[in-house]
Write a structure and sequence with these properties.
The complex is a heterodimer of chains A (237) and B (407). Chain A is 33% helix and 29% strand. Chain A is an alpha/beta fold and 237 residues long. Chain B has 2 domains: 3-52 and 272-403, no CATH class; 82-260, no CATH class. In chain B, the strands form 2 sheets. In chain B, strands 2-3-10-5-7-6 form a 6-stranded mixed beta barrel. In chain B, strands 8-9 form a two-stranded antiparallel ribbon. The chains are: A alpha/beta (237), B alpha+beta (407).
Chain lengths: 237, 407
């Protein structure tokens, strides 16, 4: 079943008098449980696509159905609720709140989900344990290494148990050793049954995905699937 | 997000920027100190004045030519009225059964001297029969009171205020000695009990002498004040009306005509006091309101800075599920926390000022509960008003814009 279904989705910006077509109309389906890498040079529209898939931005044309429901018509608050329930984000720059400790950072999505303090704490502790940071719960981001920060961010992405994990250059600010560790963690999450979409410009990282989308100038120029040992599911296209 | 969650975030944010938070609060602190201290002091002043006026002069009123003329025009108009005479007081005394005492008095100031020493600008009060019945401010502590014969006959006897006695005689007993008063010599009959000070003004720099002696010395061409004490507190108002009616008849006025004299009561004087001080309070309120407005502007400015600085934070919060109202609540509560903390500090400082003023001045200052509620209410209002625009701006940020914001 298609988790992500884009039909004629496009994004146009008004830059002064000129109109910039960041994303030309495109159709895309990503099934539940896929592991997709989006590649492309800067300006290719890969971040725009990522933001639209993540409901952080809305398309200027077309229709986007996430898990069957049309999210391109939702208002700001409903999109917040969708992001909260369905999507976990991992950013290149981690985007943790610097004044809050790891536990509070991981709890954050649960605060907005309306959970009580005790439940939040229990679930956040479990998520931190899953990424191997149970003992760093009360450290603030500035006291953590880059790899640890990204693990906190991953715990935050997982704490609401979303179906979709979006990672935007997750290893971009990390050394290769730590980056590899983070990729292993992300793949473990995929293996556990979640859909993973990541943006990268590193071939090495994209090569690990089961499907690679390449963008250039707002177009999808290739969509390659890698027949894999762990049975990839057929998409509807 | 729950309210308490927002309060917790607000305290974190306030703590994270201590100096800035303190400076932001300053406006509210100043305004609240002003409200609390000024209300406490002015209410203290009011209480003090009413105590002084209404306690001492309980059911005593006066009639004179001027009434409560408070401006020059009505004063000049009153000057042209016929004088009140000692005989008017005698007439009222005979005709007014509701009065316990009807006493004429005259006033001027003069120097009093004895043995090479001189007391300057002493209040000289010429007084008539029955004065001891008016109130207890004419009690003597040594010597004797002025007798009826003296009061009627113009004997040059005098009662000295305690301050005058002290100034002229020191340890010497003044009773039975002769003082020089406006070029004449007077026998000191007694010394009056001390009354203390009202608003720093001595009440004991006075000399009481028979009104007849006063007239002999300074002439009869002056209007007397008639002091009347009602027989009982219940008759207080009746007595005023009767006295006014009788005096109108005696002065040939019709009942519907305006009296050409003034009946003055402590209560009426207190009202004049309140009327004249109201403007003063109004001025203070305007100043306080201005400082609140300035404080509010400062706070809004700082909240706008805070929103800009924390654009990425807002982006992160929205990305993980914060709705507009969550963000609005967070920044509104933060603004209210700042103004509320400012109000708390202001209340504490205002209380200190109030207590200090109460200690060093005779004013019975007291923290007024309504001023505390008022300042807390105003502080919250500042927080809400100054916080809502920045909060709305923060809430409207799109996650994608907020996340890509570079400092």
């Amino acid at each position: 079943m298609a988790l992500i279904h884009l039909e004629g989705v496009a994004k146009t910006y008004a830059a002064g008098r000129a109109r910039v077509e960041a994303l030309k109309p495109l159709n895309l389906m990503i099934d539940d449980g896929e592991y997709v890498a989006i590649m492309g040079p800067s300006g290719s529209g890969k971040s725009t696509l990522m933001n639209i898939i993540g409901c952080l931005d809305t398309p200027t044309a077309g229709r986007y159905r996430l898990a069957g429901s049309d999210v391109s018509v939702l208002d700001d608050d409903r999109l917040s609720a969708v992001r909260n329930a369905e999507i976990g984000y991992v950013f290149q720059t981690f985007n943790l709140l610097p004044r809050s400790d790891a536990l509070r950072n991981v709890e954050l999505p649960l605060v907005y989900a309306g959970l009580g303090a005790r439940d939040r704490r229990a679930r956040a502790e479990r998520a931190l344990a899953e990424v191997g940071l149970a003992d760093r719960a009360h450290h603030r981001p500035p006291e953590l290494s880059g790899g640890e920060r990204q693990r906190v961010a991953i715990a935050r992405a997982l704490v609401t148990d979303p179906r979709l994990l979006l990672a935007d250059e997750p290893t971009g600010n990390l050394d290769s050793q730590t980056g590899a560790e983070i990729m292993m963690l992300i793949e473990r999450i995929w293996t556990a049954g979640r859909t993973v979409v990541l943006v990268t410009h590193e071939e090495e990282i994209a090569a690990r995905a089961r499907r690679v989308l390449r963008l250039r100038d707002g177009h999808v120029v290739s969509d390659a699937r890698r027949p894999a040992e762990s049975a990839p599911r057929e998409t509807g296209r | 997000m729950s309210f308490w969650e927002a309060v917790r975030l607000a305290f974190d944010a306030v703590r994270a920027n201590r100096l800035r938070s303190a400076l932001t609060m300053l406006g509210t602190v100043v305004a609240v100190v002003a409200i609390v201290a000024v209300v406490s002091i002015t209410q203290g002043l009011n209480r003090y004045v009413s105590q002084q006026l209404l306690e001492v002069g309980s059911h005593v009123f006066t009639i004179d030519k001027f009434g409560d003329a408070t401006d020059m025009a009505s004063y000049y108009a009153a000057m042209r009225r016929r004088d009140l005479r000692r005989e008017d007081a005698e007439y009222l005394r005979a005709a007014l059964p509701s009065a316990e005492a009807v006493v004429p008095s005259l006033y001027r100031s003069a120097d009093v001297a004895w043995g090479g020493r001189e007391a300057k600008d002493v209040s000289i009060i010429g007084i008539g029969e029955g004065y001891a019945l008016l109130d207890d401010s004419y009690r003597v502590t040594s010597g004797r009171e002025l007798g009826e014969e003296e009061l009627r006959g113009g004997t040059r006897s005098v009662l000295l205020g305690s301050e005058v006695a002290e100034e002229l005689f020191g340890p010497v007993d003044p009773v039975g000695r002769a003082v020089r008063l406006g070029g004449q010599s007077y026998w000191v009959a007694g010394v009056l009990a001390a009354r203390g000070r009202v608003l720093g003004q001595s009440q004991d720099n006075r000399a009481i002498l028979p009104i007849t002696a006063f007239e002999k010395q300074w002439g009869r061409r002056r209007s007397v004040t008639i002091n009347i004490r009602a027989a009982t507190p219940e008759l207080y108002e009746t007595c005023q009306e009767e006295a006014a009616t009788l005096l109108k008849i005696r002065r040939g006025l019709q009942p519907w005509e305006e009296p050409d004299f003034g009946v003055q009561t402590a209560e009426a004087f207190y009202e004049v006091y309140q009327r004249t001080t109201r403007l003063f309070y109004l001025g203070i309120i305007v100043v306080v309101a201005l400082s609140l407005v300035v404080g509010g502007i400062v706070m809004m400015n700082i909240m706008l800075v805070a929103v800009t600085e924390r654009t990425r934070e807002i982006g992160v919060r929205k990305a993980v599920g914060a709705r507009r109202r969550d963000i609005t609540l967070q920044f509104l509560v933060e603004a209210c926390t700042l103004s509320g903390a400012g109000a708390a500090i202001g209340l504490a400082l205002g209380a200190v000022v109030s207590v200090l003023v109460g200690r060093v001045s005779p004013l019975p200052t007291r923290l007024e509960p309504w001023s505390i509620l008022l300042s807390l209410g105003l502080a919250l209002a500042i927080g809400v008003i100054a916080g809502s625009y920045p909060a709305a701006r923060a809430a409207r940020l799109l996650p994608v814009t907020a996340l890509s914001y570079e400092k």
